[in-house]
Amino acid sequence: MMPFLLAEFANMEHTLPLYVCCVGSHEQKWLERPDGYHAHQLFLSRSGQGTFRIEGQPDLTLTPGTMLLLPAGVPHAYFPDQSSDRWDLGFAAFNGHAAGPLMEQMAPQARTVLTTSRFDRLWDQLESLWQLISLNGEQSYWEASKRMYDMMVTLLEGLSADKKSAARPAVSSGVQHPGLQTAVKLIHDHYNERLLLANVARAAGYSPQHFHRLFVASYGMTPQHYILQLRMRTAAQLLKEDASVSVERVAESLGMETSYFIRMFKRTYGETPKRFRDR
């Protein structure tokens, strides 16, 4: 755990283009901010599960390995789900002259649930930032600014890399293992069926354990996550192409139970399939 740490940099906010306001992680309780927060915030959900309630949009559920980028001044509240024993939530708040343009560039990633294969690296950077400020206080202002910027670049880099990998999985990913390409083709041909990964691994000529290791090393995500992303992208395309299609029909076409499909879609895109379709 990293107890809440307020970064006081003695008016350096007028000098630094990007500065840290606070950083930490703890077992999150109910917190409500009807007027929003004065700085931009990056949240990282490490374990447990919780809900963000942001004014003007559906609730967002953060599960382990997910993140949320929240602009300054947006009214919100967040709290752990009753089904979760403990919600370990990390956070870093930042501001400065460079924060506005940075958040403008990342507007498509804001106020929605984010996932990236760089999550562990981001958490390490968060811990490093906390330790820096905790040990050095005001003497760390320049280095803290650089590390906060590095975190945001890591987030943007991870989201961009994962998007490219997902868009070109079997053709241009550069994977050197023919068996993996066979497996990915099998997944794309049968993603809407009940796929047993042991059977996929066997078809590729690997043991399940070796297949899992190779897949994560090559694609930056587990086979299960890859299949889920493929299903969610297909669902989004179906909802965009046909405004009259029912959520139940889309779930059925993906081989998913409706309630589970809705939950996974909301986790991926930050809103329900119905709202996504209607919008």
From TrEMBL:
It comes from the Bacteria. Pfam families: AraC_binding, HTH_18. The keyword Transcription regulation applies. Keywords: DNA-binding, Transcription, Transcription regulation. Gene3D superfamilies: Homeodomain-like, Regulatory protein AraC. This is AraC family transcriptional regulator. GO terms for molecular function: DNA-binding transcription factor activity; sequence-specific DNA binding. The keyword Isomerase does not apply. Residues 181-279 form the HTH araC/xylS-type domain. InterPro entries: AraC-bd, Homeodomain-like_sf, HTH-like, HTH_AraC, HTH_AraC-typ_CS.
